[in-house]
Each structure stands twice: as structure tokens, then as C-alpha cells.
Amino acid sequence: MAWKVGAAVAVLLGFVGVSGGVGSGPDPRRAGWRDAYRAPTEIPFPAENPYTAAKAELGRRLFFDPILSGDGTRACATCHIPDLAWGDGRARAATRQQGDMDLRTPTLLNIAWQDGSLGWDGKFRTLESVAAMPMAAPGNMNLPMPDALTRLSSDPSYAAAFAEAFADPAITRERLEAALATFQRLIVTGTTPFDRWIAGQEDAIGEPAKRGFDLFNGRAGCASCHSGWSFTDNSFHDIGVGVGPDIGRGRYKPTSLALQYAFKTPTLREIGQRGPYMHDGSVPTLSAVIDLYNRGGIDRPSRSRSIKPLQLTAAERADLLAFLATLSTSAGRDLVTISFAAKAPAP
């Protein structure tokens, strides 16, 4: 059972609302909507893998060390790059041979709040279960788990680090996965202009962004999926982009037509740093993302019922862009430092 977060971070918000166009007043529901976005006070860690500083430091070292790849050229950080909001900036992740994988690299920002069914198609049950697949995949890190454990066990410094983290020098798959997951749960976005506004600083964002917030939660319906502090409902939706063999959650739930092209709702935190967009990187800019939603994507039986043409004006689309811009901290180097914000619980 995960430790409780200090604020609610996943509230589904209504669709029908008042348009926040230029010249109109704020939506009367704005104050209530703001309450749903207050930041949590601590990171949730599962009881079966509680936080310790030694385990987190071991996970950090493993994350950046190419020792976990067959030829010593790739690490977790090869695809999850701190300066690129813990993604890689590519439309699709690069293979070891510099080809393209099937999906783009998801960000690790705020991964501690991603509840179960991780990955674009939900193939991973827990964060702890993620590492083994990319490590062993021939096109990725190309190092089977037994070989990884043998390699680490032959390194005295890793034996000492595992002994400190687990009170035992034995290096096992479970401990390797636990250390990596502990570190990754510390990858937390910093305070953004939006967060300062939510906390009560009225001049932290401009009027266009406030109108965009009203649209996001009201008539545009964005918050029906991108909900709460982490801006995701942790669920899967067909928004009208996947085609052909590009199967989403339906790969594991083949009897459900609604899930055939359904992919995980990503967080919108640091969204300005994370283009191109969608599971396949097929949408190059945030403006193009808004245009996609505005026209409703591909009209088909599996498309989510909440996705439909929005008929937003150019001014309203600009307001939505202004709002999304408030969800990012400073670009570049600052992302590296703020993402290690240690909001872990006290021992």
C-alpha cells in the first residue's frame, strides 16, 4: 500500500463549461478547479520498496552507468535524458543500431504518481518491473538479466553499494529493480508559474493563461484525461491518432474495441520541453496538438467518446497554448537540478 500523498492529485473535471474568450470574465468555477491542482507534500513510495538514501543513490548510479548494456554504450539515461525533461527529444526512441523503436521515449517526470499499468500500452505492472525489458532487449541495452547480475557482482564497489542499500552484498534482480525505481521516484518537476498561481500568486501567470486554464477544465474538456496535479488520469484512451498495426492497450485487451488504439495519458508537466508529441512522435508541436484535438482526430468507433471537434477560435487556441506554457520550469540545465527535489518522507 503506497504512502498517502498530501493532496488529491487526480480529480475528473466536467466537460460542459463557459468559454473563456478574450473580453469575458473568468469562469465562475475557476476557484474550485484550482483546488484540484495543489501540489502534494511528499513522494509516494510503496511499502514493499520504501525510500532510503542509500538505495536511491545506488539507483542513481545504476541509471547513468552503461555497465547495464551489453557493449557498454547505453544506459537508462541514453533515452531518459535530464536536459530533455527525462525523454530523448526524438519522435521514436533510437535502437542500439540507430534505427527507430515502435514508440517514443516517455518522460520519467513525476513517475511516482503513475499508478500501475506503466508504458504507452500498459505492459508494466509496477515501476520496479520496467527495467528488465529494455535491459535485455537486443535492440536496446542487449544485456540479459543474469549477465547483468554477474557483471555487477564482479565489481567490488557495486557489492559495497548493494550491501549498504540492502544490508547484504547479494546482488539480485529484485534489488536492482528496487534501487532503480527508488531513484526514479525522486525525479520530480520543480515549481512552475502555474504552481505559484495555484498557491495564490495571482501575477504568476497572465490573463491569456488563466483563460486557457478555464478552457482546459471547461469547454475544451482537456482535464477529463489530464487531471489533477500530475495532469494525467493514469488511463488509456483512443484520441484518434493510432492506425494500422500501431496497437495500444488493445494489444493486451484484444477483446475491447475501445482499447485498440488506446495509449496512456501522459503527464503535461514540462510539456513545452517534450516535443514531438503522442506515443509515436507524429505531432511536431503543441500548436499542432491543439489543432488535432480541435478537429477531433480520426473519427472511428474506438475513438474515446470524449474526443470530438471543439470548434475553438484562434484566440482560444492561443489561450490554451499560453496555459500549457505555464506548466514548465526553466529550460535546459535547471531541469537537471530541480528534478532531484528530495521530497522523500522522513526516516
UniProtKB/TrEMBL annotation:
Cofactor: binding details: Binds 2 heme groups.
TM annotation in the entry: none
Residues at which heme c 2 binds: C222, C225, H226
Localization in the cell: Periplasm
Any one GO cellular component localisation term in the record: periplasmic space
Cytochrome c domain mapped to chain residues: 54-191, 207-328
Cofactor(s) recorded in Swiss-Prot or TrEMBL: heme
Domain of life where this protein originates: Bacteria
Keyword Lyase applies: no
Record's function text: Involved in methylamine metabolism. Essential for the maturation of the beta subunit of MADH, presumably via a step in the biosynthesis of tryptophan tryptophylquinone (TTQ), the cofactor of MADH.
Full protein name: Methylamine utilization protein MauG
Species this chain originates from: Methylobacterium tardum
